[in-house]
Automatic annotation (TrEMBL):
Source domain of life: Bacteria
UniProt cross-references to SUPFAM superfamilies, sorted A to Z: Phosphoglycerate mutase-like
InterPro entries: His_Pase_superF_clade-1, His_PPase_superfam
Name of the protein in question: Histidine phosphatase family protein
Length: 160
């Protein structure tokens, strides 16, 4: 689970739909690229990516550079992941392809943090928050459709 990287601040008086269109700030672009390098160094490429349609989430995923030239990582962009509640995010993971060994979920707080904290068994590493461009890596036992805290184990928490 990856929270999108740092985005531009909301402009005072901006239209309601501007939040969905907010792009990454320069720091966010650099952080997402750094996270991508770290993941590639570790040899980790998700087989499936579930990404919010918000501009900052889409840009974060693009900056990771995880999409191989042959397009073998499937990315699915979903409106319902934008500012989603933890249960909606969990439902999205449960609907991941059964044959996907690894899934990357790129989303937003507070839902992403709440779900990661719940699945981790309230791990100390997640108690203090889930800042931008933070990644929580879980090992999942069984199939995606039955994912819950009993079938997930927090392996690592990484920030660029």
């Amino acid at each position: 689970m990856l929270r999108h990287a740092k985005a531009l601040a909301a402009a005072p008086g901006a239209p309601d739909d501007w939040d969905h269109a907010r792009p990454l700030a320069d720091r966010g672009l650099m952080d997402a690229a750094a996270m991508g390098r770290l993941l590639r160094e570790r040899g980790w490429r998700p087989e499936q990516a579930l990404v919010s349609t918000a501009a900052r989430a889409r840009q974060t995923y693009a900056q990771l550079g995880l999409q191989p030239p042959d397009g073998s990582t499937a990315a699915a962009f979903h409106d319902h992941l934008y500012l989603a509640e933890p249960d909606s995010l969990l439902d999205a993971l449960r609907e991941a392809p059964a044959d996907a060994d690894s899934v990357l979920l790129v989303g937003h707080n507070p839902g992403l943090h709440e779900l990661a904290y719940r699945l981790s068994g309230e791990a100390d590493a997640l108690q203090r928050g889930f800042p931008t461009c933070m990644l929580a890596i879980f090992a999942v036992e069984g199939c995606w459709s039955t994912l819950d805290a009993r079938h997930a184990r927090l392996l690592d928490v990484v920030a660029p």
